[in-house]
């Protein structure tokens, strides 16, 4: 099992999306939380953080651009830990295209079979270089808020609702399939996993942990992510609550 204190000179390289970067959107503008989870964890666990996460980043793009091969060229055994926190953008759609023809088939940015294939290829590639990546599950979506404040801001919501056949739970169920794929890949290959999603789902105040866009955690949500990761991979000296770290 991965533990943060196995490394004397520790460096954490993270490839993730806007959530891993601590970003969120409000009224069409991009903002950053003051204390993203990755920064909280790195500080508490004594890592130098190399956060290569980016708004809109997908697993498919990482593979196509050779980002993981680039990490392997920099990899120092005994020092480096590599983490992947992706899937949220892979499962998303081009909502303008959906609204233009809601009854047609619309490909997600990365179709689920391809996403699963790329997960396995990435794990195999990293394993050949002596790296076992750390994974996180996906933060849940507030479908109503995401539909109202993101989809409807980009496209005709009435037309998109035809694509959903009037059922907004299609958003959450579709995203759940990608989170489950990450969990299966990690467990099948013996990779360390922080199950962030379950922690959020068990919170009765889930919606209060998300920004207005319904997909990005706010400051409290980022603190909860940090708490989940600290529990999964505690640093030397025991655990602290996210409240104490934020």
Number of H/I helices = 12
Number of extended strands: 7
Q: What is the percentage of strand-forming residues? A: 5-15%
Give the count of structural domains. 1
| Overall residue-averaged pLDDT value | 92
Under CATH, the homologous superfamily reads SGNH hydrolase
Using the 3D structure, state the CATH architecture: 3-Layer(aba) Sandwich
- CATH fold topology: Rossmann fold
The main sheet comes to: 5 strands, parallel
Kindly provide the name of the CATH class: Alpha Beta
Spatial shape: globular
Rounded to the nearest angstrom, the distance between the terminal CA atoms is 26 Å
Strand order of the largest sheet: 4-1-5-6-7
Q: Would you list the SSEs in sequence order as H and E?
A: EHEEHEHHEHHEHHHEHHH
Report on this structure:
Helix 2 (37-45) runs parallel beside helix 11 (219-232) and helix 6 runs parallel beside helix 9 (169-188). The chain has 12 helices and 7 strands. 46% of the residues lie in helices and 12% in strands. The model is unreliable at 238-246 (pLDDT under 50). It has helices at 18-21, 37-45, 59-65, 67-74, 95-100, 112-128, 143-154, 157-163, 169-188, 196-201, 219-232, 242-245, and strands at 11-16, 23-26, 29-32, 48-51, 80-85, 134-136, 193-194. By secondary structure, it is of the alpha/beta class.
Secondary structure layout plus pairing:
Elements: E1 11-16, H1 18-21, E2 23-26, E3 29-32, H2 37-45, E4 48-51, H3 59-65, H4 67-74, E5 80-85, H5 95-100, H6 112-128, E6 134-136, H7 143-154, H8 157-163, H9 169-188, E7 193-194, H10 196-201, H11 219-232, H12 242-245
Parallel strand pairs: 1-4, 1-5, 5-6, 6-7
Antiparallel strand pairs: 2-3
Helix pairs in contact: 2-11, 6-9
């Amino acid at each position: 099992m991965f533990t943060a204190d196995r490394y004397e000179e520790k460096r954490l390289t993270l490839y993730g999306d806007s959530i891993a970067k601590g970003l969120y959107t409000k009224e069409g503008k991009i903002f950053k939380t003051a204390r993203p989870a990755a920064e909280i964890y790195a500080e508490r666990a004594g890592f130098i953080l190399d956060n290569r996460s980016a708004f809109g980043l997908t697993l498919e793009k990482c593979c196509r651009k050779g980002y993981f091969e680039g990490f392997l060229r920099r990899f120092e055994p005994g020092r480096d830990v590599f983490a992947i926190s992706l899937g949220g953008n892979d499962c998303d759609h081009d909502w303008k295209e959906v609204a233009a023809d809601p009854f047609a088939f619309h490909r997600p940015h990365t179709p689920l079979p391809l996403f699963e294939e790329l997960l396995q290829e990435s794990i195999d590639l990293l394993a050949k270089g002596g790296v076992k990546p750390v994974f996180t599950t996906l933060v849940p979506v507030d479908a109503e808020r995401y539909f109202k404040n993101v989809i409807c801001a980009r496209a005709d919501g009435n037309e998109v609702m035809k694509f959903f056949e009037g059922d907004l739970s299609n958003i959450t169920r579709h995203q759940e399939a990608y989170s489950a794929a990450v969990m299966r890949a990690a467990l099948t290959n013996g990779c360390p996993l922080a199950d962030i999603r379950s922690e959020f789902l068990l919170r009765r105040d889930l919606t209060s942990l998300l920004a207005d866009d319904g997909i990005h955690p706010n400051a409290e949500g980022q603190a909860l992510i940090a708490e989940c990761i600290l529990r999964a991979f505690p640093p030397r000296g025991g655990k602290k609550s996210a409240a104490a770290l934020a």
